[in-house]
Each structure stands twice: as structure tokens, then as C-alpha cells.
């Protein structure tokens, strides 16, 4: 129980942010109306994805140094979970875009580039499956990971800022400070991010333990 | 005189803008008659179910880990 406190914390934070996110007051803004509450659910998905991908590159580099199969398994499983959160982020973003921008997919730079960065990680998973030999697979996928991670960061955080984008925080659009100025939203938004990051990490540990069990039994 | 009239017109138009801010459509009716709570409750039930399911999966996993630890 003592070791599991952060899982309970994550569960409580997610529950709190859902209840407070639906019931607490939000600023009255045109176009967004109540859909501003999506901030509590759409954005944490991406934060959880970034944390899991960072975890993946950390263990990828570590597996290159230690040659440990377990470090390699940690790297893969965090990508496996991170990709799920990325897809959820993309889908929630599409629904929000339909009602805020008028189209599910308006070929906005942020949408395009985040889809491409997800494809990069799908390629990582496919690349791994294509190699049978264990040591080789670990080495090649770790090196691919070292290239994929900075590209993902550039695609999501740098390139959309250089172009005109409908997404907040890009191309001259005001960023989070537009919403963050409202302290009521901050009280829900930060706990939501932390909660979903913890839940994502928890699912990753479960996946890693399953795959290390199967690895042991081989 | 022209200046005063201009200021008055500006004042009136800006007051109109202030009035518009509170006219932005929100789900006030939904909240006032209390029906939103039903949605919140069902979402919470789903979340609680999924989270306890996660805990249950982990419990089973722990059992398996113990078993394979004994073997090795």
C-alpha cells in the first residue's frame, strides 16, 4: 500500500478533475462556450504522451549502455502506452475542432504535425516487429528512438509556432495564458495533467511487468 | 461639442459590448435544473469502474509475479 500511494493519487486527481472540470465555473468566451472544459481532458492526454515518450527515450539510451533486455522492454512499453494517449489526444482534438473551427480536420499545422509525430512512433513499433534478433532489435530501435524523440518535440512544439495556426499557443494565437489567467481553471487544469500523467505511467508499469513476465518464461 | 458627442457615442457602444459579454451562451439552464449532475455521476461511475479494474489487473499480475518468482 505504501508503494502504491501515487496510483491512488493519480486516480483521485483524475476523478477530482472530471467532477470539478464539469461543474466548476469557467470564463464566458465566445465560440468556445462550455467546450472550454475540454482543456481539462484534451491537453492532459498530450502531456501524458510526452512524459511516456521521454521515459521511452531515457530507457532506450539506457539499454544502449547497459545492454539490458529489460531496459529495452521499458522503452517499448512506454511507447505502446504513449501512442494510445496520443491517439486519444488527436481524437478529442478533432471533436473539439469540429465545433470550434468548423471541421474535424482543417489541415491545421498543429493537427498535421502531431499526426506525423504519432506516425513516427507507429514506425518505431513496426520497425521493432520486423527484427527477430533480440540484441539487434534493442540497438536499432533505441537509435531510432533517439532520432524520433527530438523530431516529435520539433513537430509538436516548434514548427506549429512558426506558421499561422488556429490552435492556441501557435502562430500569434495567445497560448495557455488566455485560459490560465483564470485561477479557477488553473485549479482544475494542473491536477488533471498530473493525474493523467500518473495514470499513464501506471498503465505503462503494468504493461512492462506483463512483458517482462513473458520474457522470463521464454 | 463634436468631441463630447463622439465620447458619448463611444461610451454607449462600449457599454453595449459589456452587455454582450454576459449574453454568451452557456449551459446555464442545464446546470440550474440540475440535470448535469446525472451526466457527472455516470462519468464518475465509468471512471471508478475503470480505475478499480486497473487495480484488479495489477493484483492478478502481482500474483503471477509471485508464482514465477517461486519457480525461478
From TrEMBL, chain A:
It is found in: Membrane. GO terms for cellular component: plasma membrane. Its main location: membrane. It is a multi-pass membrane protein. GO terms for molecular function: heme binding; heme transmembrane transporter activity. Keywords: Cytochrome c-type biogenesis, Membrane, Transmembrane, Transmembrane helix. The chain crosses the membrane at residues 41-61, 81-101, 113-131, 143-162, 188-206. Residues 35-158 form the Cytochrome c assembly protein domain. GO terms for biological process: cytochrome complex assembly. Belongs to the CcmC/CycZ/HelC family. Required for the export of heme to the periplasm for the biogenesis of c-type cytochromes. This is Heme exporter protein C. It comes from Pedobacter insulae. The lineage of its organism: Bacteria, Pseudomonadati, Bacteroidota, Sphingobacteriia, Sphingobacteriales.
Automatic annotation (TrEMBL), chain B:
Pfam families: CcmD_alt. It comes from the Bacteria. The keyword Transmembrane helix applies. Keywords: Membrane, Signal, Transmembrane, Transmembrane helix. Residues 1-19 form the signal peptide. The chain crosses the membrane at residues 37-57. This is CcmD family protein. The lineage of its organism: Bacteria, Pseudomonadati, Bacteroidota, Sphingobacteriia, Sphingobacteriales.
Amino acid at each position: 500500500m505504501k508503494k502504491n500511494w501515487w496510483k491512488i493519487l493519480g486516480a483521485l486527481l483524475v476523478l477530482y478533475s472530471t467532477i470539478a472540470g464539469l461543474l466548476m465555473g469557467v470564463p464566458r468566451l465566445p465560440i468556445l462556450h462550455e467546450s472550454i472544459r475540454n482543456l481539462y481532458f484534451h491537453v492532459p492526454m498530450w502531456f501524458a504522451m510526452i512524459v511516456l515518450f521521454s521515459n521511452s527515450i531515457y530507457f532506450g539510451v539506457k539499454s544502449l549502455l547497459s545492454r539490458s533486455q529489460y531496459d529495452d522492454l521499458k522503452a517499448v512499453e512506454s511507447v505502446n502506452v504513449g501512442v494510445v494517449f496520443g491517439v486519444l489526444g488527436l481524437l478529442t482534438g478533432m471533436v473539439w475542432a469540429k465545433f470550434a473551427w468548423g471541421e474535424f480536420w482543417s489541415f491545421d499545422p498543429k493537427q498535421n504535425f502531431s499526426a506525423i509525430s504519432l506516425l513516427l512512433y507507429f514506425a518505431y513499433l513496426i520497425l521493432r516487429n520486423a527484427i527477430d534478433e533480440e540484441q539487434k532489435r534493442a540497438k536499432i530501435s533505441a537509435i531510432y528512438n533517439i532520432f524520433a524523440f527530438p523530431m516529435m518535440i520539433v513537430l509538436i512544439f516548434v514548427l506549429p509556432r512558426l506558421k499561422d495556426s488556429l490552435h492556441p499557443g501557435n502562430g500569434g494565437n495567445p497560448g495557455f495564458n488566455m485560459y490560465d489567467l483564470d485561477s479557477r481553471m488553473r485549479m482544475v487544469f494542473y491536477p488533471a495533467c498530473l493525474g493523467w500523467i500518473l495514470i499513464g505511467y501506471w498503465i505503462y508499469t503494468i504493461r512492462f511487468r506483463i512483458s517482462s513476465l513473458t520474457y522470463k518464461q521464454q | 461639442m463634436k468631441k463630447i458627442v463622439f465620447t458619448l457615442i463611444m461610451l454607449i457602444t462600449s457599454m453595449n459590448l459589456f452587455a454582450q459579454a454576459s449574453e454568451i451562451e452557456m449551459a446555464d439552464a442545464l446546470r440550474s435544473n440540475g440535470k448535469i449532475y446525472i451526466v457527472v455521476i455516470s462519468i464518475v461511475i465509468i471512471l471508478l469502474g475503470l480505475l478499480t479494474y486497473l487495480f484488479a489487473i495489477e493484483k492478478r499480475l502481482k500474483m503471477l509475479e509471485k508464482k514465477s518468482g517461486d519457480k525461478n
